[in-house]
Protein: Asparagine--tRNA ligase
Amino acid sequence: MESIESILNDDFIGKTVTIHGWVYRIRSSGRITFIIIRDSTDIVQCVASSSLGERYNDISSLTVESSLEVTGQVSKDERAVTGYEIKISDFKIYQRNEFFPITKDKSDEFLLDNRHLWLRSREFTSILKIRSTVFKAFADFFYNNGYYQVQGPMMVSTATEGGATLFKLKFFDDDVYLTQSSQFYLETMIFSLEKVFTIAPSFRAEKSRTRRHLSEYWHAEGEAAWLHNDDMMNVEEKMIEYIVSEVLNKNEKDLKLINRDISKLERIKAPFPRIKYRDLINKSREFGMNLKYGDDLGADEEYNIMIHYEKPLFVTNYPEELKTFYHLPDPENPGEILCHDLLAPEGYGEIIGGGERIWRLDELLERMKKAGLPEEDYYWYIDLRRYGSVPHSGFGLGLDRLVNWICNLNNIRDAIPYPRTVRRIKP
Ligand code: 4AD
Ligand code: MG
Structure:
């Protein structure tokens, strides 16, 4: 059995091959039928003619997405979609379909309800291949840099990113939450492993429907002892450069299929520009906005900024009030914290949130008190500041957002096979 991609070259001209897959398109004109067959690798035009005798009707009456195996001789044909054609001499039908429900002009809702079938589209196939490269490249980058892959729990008793977006569920007789971030658990592991990363789901009860929020998303997080905020950004920009270069190397065909402008991705080379939040606010008129110090940057603001950038942009030193309690205050700039968001270009906005963590006990307790957090719930997080505490930094990257940007999609739900949003929990 050959893969379709492997036979699409001149070496196979005149050879007889067997391929299997699904009917992608079928067009019959009486005594001759063109069937485009797809497998995971590509599509190829196959032709059946009445030379198949009595069996011709079986194959010429197939419908889209029926599964089959065909054997035939390969020839070059400029008119065929992928440049070659297979003249069918034998075939086996695995399943003859009823009418396939996905046709042109279906509504977004219909396609979302039928996601399990819509996934077979060529665009989605390419997006999923790119996604696969992104996940592997993220892990490879950190393995290559001496990090260990670890796992934290998904059912937790503490909030990392504030109570507003916590999903609560019953756990025997207790209430538990679905994790918003594995950060605190990664922090516990740097005291033995020093450099760790994880790829895990995170959950956010985001009530608003936006183009960049999922209720369940894939979170790639890293944490390292001894690194400061700037050091962490140095790691992250190389990581993003590596992931994008891997996609360019491995998924050129897929990027073309989804009409991605490859030249825009080729520009993604470290270092990335860095700007302090306060300088960005001062420049906000240049981006057509009138922001005040203390305003948060949401999707719209980030869009207005990032349509002006060709590379991702680090925004550092947010005011303390805009971020969660664990960020380290900047001793040189009172009221500011040593944190960073990485905003993706072409208007995409935030893909990473990270920074340096408070590592001294009294400072942490003070910030927790200010945030109104009960010490007893966070006893284990506080303990890390009691026994051999060290400076450390980390980050969280939304992998679905990264895929969304790399593929230049309109909506994050097209970057993940089964999106979970405030209004969607099936299929
Ligand atoms: O900025 P966030 O909330 O930061 C944290 O969770 C830190 N504890 C991470 C860390 O330092 N280890 O989330 C990190 C990233 C965001 O930049 C974004 O890419 C993604 O997670 N993200 C979401 N992606 C999809 N849907 C959502 N609802 C998301 N919320 C955050
Ligand atoms: Mg954030």
The chain has two domains: 4-95, 112-415. Residues 341, 350, 353 surround magnesium ion (ligand 2) (CB under 6 Å). The two ends are 33 Å apart (CA to CA). Residues 112-415 form a domain with the BirA Bifunctional Protein; domain 2 fold (CATH 3.30.930.10).
